[in-house]
Amino acid sequence: MDILKNLELKIAEAIKHFKEQLAGIRGGRPSSKLVEDVPVEYFGQKLTIKQLGSISIISPREIQISVWDRNAASAVLKAIESSGLNISANPEGNLIRINLPSLSGERRQELIKVAKKEAEEARIKIRGIRDEINKEINRQFSACARGASASAGKGGSASAGEEKKISEDDKFKFKEKVQESVDKTNEEIEKILENKIKEIEE
């Protein structure tokens, strides 16, 4: 049914956004995900760092960006410094080096709080999607009830081509499936959060 497909699409979009938000939170180890999607203003275009160069990790705590066009180096550097990631970058020709100092215990706790906040916002988003889909289910059921009543009054069946409608049995089945998807998604959010916390604590 279109209702459940719509639910899946909205949930997938919400999870993608959640993962992107967590990717911007620094972990205990350097990761290309920290900078790869940072937007860069380059010759009037909005591009990401991963579109402008290759990103590699130099152990133990360095991220190295090699831009393909040397002229892009200053734009990438500016984007990193204004990204809100609170990291410093050093340019060397077409290379940009980012050295990540070890996280203090206090800073780790701050980042964990941010990750948990993102997880809670993701759960709120999922609840909103659930409520929106359930309203659509109720709307289609109400349309079905009205159609049945009108049909009975006229002594005939509703004409083909009318808006999609669902029965009472379908209404409960759809709502059960919606809740199952929501529960499964909340479990996924929790696992993603747990992995992020482990990453921060490393």
From TrEMBL:
Listed name of the protein: Ribosome recycling factor
Region Disordered, residue ranges: 148-170
Family: Belongs to the RRF family.
Segments of skewed composition (Basic and acidic residues): 161-170
Biological processes per GO annotation: translation
GO molecular function: ribosomal large subunit binding
Annotated SUPFAM superfamilies: Ribosome recycling factor, RRF
Source species of the chain: Candidatus Wolfebacteria bacterium CG_4_10_14_0_8_um_filter_39_64
Lineage: Bacteria, Candidatus Wolfeibacteriota
Domain Ribosome recycling factor: 18-200
Keyword Coiled coil: yes
Alphabetical keyword list: Coiled coil, Protein biosynthesis
Parts forming coiled coils: 112-139, 175-202
